[in-house]
Amino acid sequence: MTTIIAATDYSFDGNNAVKYAAGLAAQLKAGLVLFNAYIIPVHASNTLLPAHTVEMMQEENRQHLAKFARGIADQYKISVFTEVAFGNFKDELDSVYKKYDAAMVVMGMSGRSLGQKLFGNTTTSLIASASYPVLSVPKGAAFKKIEKVLFACDCSREYQAHTQEALKQVVQQLHASVEIFNVEADTPSANQLLKLADEGLLEFKTVHGLHIVRRIRTEIKESGADLLVMVPQKYSFWESVVHVSKTGIMASQSTVPLLSVPDWN
Q1: Cβ(226)–Cβ(146) under 8 Å?
Q2: What percent of the chain is helix, strand and coil (3-state, nearest 5)?
Q3: pLDDT higher than 50, residue 222
Q4: How far, in Å, CA of 44 to CA of 55, rounded?
Q5: What is the mean pLDDT of residues 4-22?
Q6: 109: how many CB neighbours lie within 10 A of its CB?
């Protein structure tokens, strides 16, 4: 059975992402794992709390997540499991992802702010570093059946085999129509990406020039896409200083959920 992981910090955006993930799990007939990484607040850790108090806090967190999971399972008629971790968010999430051999991780994306523009947030940081697909859900987005997928890509690139396989699985599992939106001038005739969808489901468009992010936002609206898919590029530290991740920008500005499929191991 396909498994989706929804990470939440119990915030409005985090819990809204859980509800979106539940709707997606119902569409895919998948199982859902609710994940929360628990960190003792700084003020509490500074007081040198006894071990039994820390254990009690952890147990309360497990019970809170379990109650949330029962409500989601009843509402969406899906199988829901829980994972509560204590420690570094990324490390613990990586471990849970491997444990369930999950298809993707779903996280909420808060609204745009100055701090987010300058430093990003947990979701954009995960997109930039995770070796698995990450679905970011815009602030306040409600689930609707995914029938149209917009895949914004550079068709002059040759994506790795595992990336192509991940994209192919998305197309097959959703049974959605796909538009490939080429953000470069090169023609895609020889590219393997054209094999990711049946001819009857495939559209193709090319955009030239600058303002790529603006063009993608416009195409989302004009095409009526329910899901945006992008493949981020991985940069070294110094490359990241001069390159701005368009996938990260779209994650923070998109009006529809963005599925980021990494092209690295």
Answers
A1: yes
A2: 45, 20, 35
A3: yes
A4: 13
A5: 95
A6: 26
**Could you give the CA distance from residue 143 to residue 257 in angstroms, rounded to a whole number?**
9
Secondary structure (DSSP) of 135-180: EEE-TTPPP----EEEEEE-TTS---HHHHHHHHHHHHHHT-EEEE
- pLDDT more than 90, % of the chain: 40
**CB neighbour list of residue 236: distance below 8 Å, 6 or more residues apart:** none
DSSP strand E in 44-140: where? Answer: 80-86, 104-108, 134-137
pLDDT grade for 159, boundaries at 50, 70 and 90: confident
Domains of the chain: 3-108 (3.40.50.620), 148-260 (3.40.50.620)
The pTM (predicted TM-score) of the whole model is 0.83
